Amino acid sequence: MTAPEGGTPHPEGVSNDEFRAAMSRLAAGVCLITAHEPALTADGPRGEDVGMTATAFMSVSLDPPLVLVSLREGSRMDDLLAEQPLWAVSVLADSQLRIASRFAMKGRISDRLLFEGVPWERGAVSGSPLLTGALATLECRTESRVEAGDHTLVIGRVLTAALPAPDAPPLTYFRGRYRHLAP
User: Fold this and answer.
1) pTM confidence score
2) Is residue 127 over pLDDT 70?
3) Which of 26, 69, 142, 151 has the most CB atoms lying inside 10 A of its own CB?
């Protein structure tokens, strides 16, 4: 087997480029994963809200209600959720493409600035930001973490679920780009 240009095959035979190309053909919904990083000390600076765009998110179980998100190992969200068990998910509507892009940037500005101008409310259970106008919002508590290659799979128990804008069209991701579903 020959590796595509710029791709070195793994011992199993598939290169990173081949795998990435194949998986880009799987359409995915787009979510904003959020958590509140509490203040380090009671008299120290206030905590900070953290967010990241995710397409590797799925339902795991109905009884109990469980979801899974895949986080890049060592990312800020991975590190935070290793310590903070409460987090939230906003399933993004088509109209929230700019928000998805903003929280997906590499080498981005501080999370405090990323949330500026974004309409959200604080979750009553998790304390995490929940986007106004999202198709659905969930507040979760981590049940388990599984190391998987260069990612961590975080399985969360759903504590609350709401449908702020249930009839809006979804934001999707396909072949490396955000997409709009045809009506």
Assistant:
1) 0.88
2) yes
3) 69
